[in-house]
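Usage

Read records sequentially. Each one opens with the input sequence:
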Amino acid sequence: MTRAAAEHAAALLERQHRRIQALLTDVRLGRDRAAAFAELVRLIVAHESVEQSLVYPIAHPPTDAARRSEQHQLLRALAELYDLGVQHPEFDRKFAQFTDLMSTHLTHQNLRELPLVRNCASPAYASRITAAVELVETFACVHRPVEPEPHRAVPPLSLFSRLCAAVDAGLGNRKSQAELDTRPTPSSRSALRS
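and closes with the structure output:
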């Protein structure tokens, strides 16, 4: 029973991973491309803001700059695609590169980070992750119909900053010592990597 909250939080993050993968395919295949790209931008930014604020603190030591660098690379690439727009002649080539980066990132999360959420997050911390996912999806309007010019919505980096601030203010940075003690030890991280 104590793992139910952690399992639910991980399942929500996995659901977002599946939706991101589906939207990557929709954009690549041209299925209502502008709308799919607009939803993809909002969902990735919402998802990454929760990871930044709540998943990375338990999945990586505070000194792990590689994860944050990978995330910033993804967000910069997404912002570049956003600036180009789906009609730009370079969009397809750059989107293919972005898809590879994003797919690698999601695979890494599924294999290394979500098991830590399931196994190391306290019920209270897992509930925080769940609430943050719901908050950012609402704030980023992830499930709403897109506007007539969807690629001209809020720019990804600006939206990411706003969502991280919302998560931190509402949920993320008021961690109790008990919640922080749920961080995995170096040995538990090593075991999960093998």
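Summary fields computed downstream for this record:
- Confidence is low (pLDDT under 50) at residues 148-152, 172-194.
- Helices lie at 4-29, 33-59, 65-84, 91-120, 123-139, 156-172, 177-180, 186-193.
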